[in-house]
Amino acid sequence: xxxxxxxxxxxxxxxxxxxxxxxxxxxSQPHPKSSHPQKRLLQQAFLNQGMSCPTDPGNYKVGPEDxxxxxxxxxxxxxxxxxxxxxxKIKLPLVGEADVQGLSTMEVERKLExxxxxxxxxxxxxxxxxxxxxxxxxxxxxxxxxxxxxxxxGPRTIFEMLxxxxxxxxxxxxxxxxxxxxxxxxxGGQAAGSPQTLVxxxxxxxxxxxxxxxxxxxxxxxxxxxxYAGFAYVTGEVQKPGxxxxxxxxxxxxxxAVAGAFTPVASKQIQVLRFDEQGExxxxxxxxxxxxxxxxxxxxxxxxDVVVVPSSTGKKVWQGISNIFRGAFSVGYMAAP
Length: 337
Description:
Helix content: 25-40%
CATH topology of the largest domain: Outer membrane lipoprotein wza fold like
Largest sheet: 5 strands, mixed
Structural class: alpha+beta
Strand order of the largest sheet: 7-6-10-8-9
CATH superfamily of the largest domain: Outer membrane lipoprotein wza domain like
Low-confidence stretches: 1-42, 48-52, 331-336
Distance between the termini: 11 Å
Shape: rod-shaped
Number of domains: 3
Number of helices: 10
Order of helices and strands: HHHEEEEHEEEHEEHHEEEHEEHEH
Mean pLDDT: 76
């Protein structure tokens, strides 16, 4: 036992007995905040816009089963409350049938003024009010908490329908698609009559005015699709290796933060593996030492990137020696009389 203790003492004097090695300076660096708080803030602002949006009944398109109140100024005997039939038509005194399907209430007013003004009234003033809205449906699919088909009673915005679906989940990407069949175009989009898709960038939406956001109304039959985000992957000497959702502006430091602290043997020389458009693998070095100090290039990640945190040979050797020392001291302490 004396010989064994003397041997351990000699090893300590040679290498220096510091007990447990100090954890890597990588893990002691303050990790950048993950993108999750920003995502939650974005989602809350995104949905709040919808919750507070005033709707404009004038943009509503009349269809079968709607109940309309038609008033003609100074002509009480001609005022009527009429329901739109399945062919999209209403029946009124004097003018008979009028096709109103797909028209806004303002367009219905102009049409009725024209019909009454042709042979019956001089410069008639017509107002139309929707008393009962027909049962309409909008589908919300993709990365939302409660996907499904939701009723749309009266004018609704995209944000209100997303709120109905429980909001965006953590796997949602940065855009929302609104797919509309033929018959009603988006402002500034393709010609009416052809299928269209409106793409909304949620991060850009935060910089828009409430009026711009609230102008994004939905129609019967629209499909709101929230695509899932793509993923990058963090592997190697981190506490929680795995996938990280790639949001707009996701950097290496953010991905590493989501993957937890570095292990004690992590190296500062991180690598990002990326495949280019030709399928060729690229190896992009990232110096954590400078990135963590805000001096280096915190690389923006793309879908399918792999962030590799390698181990440091020197730190692994030192950890191995330290483990031997701890084991030897533990055995020596237990064997002492």
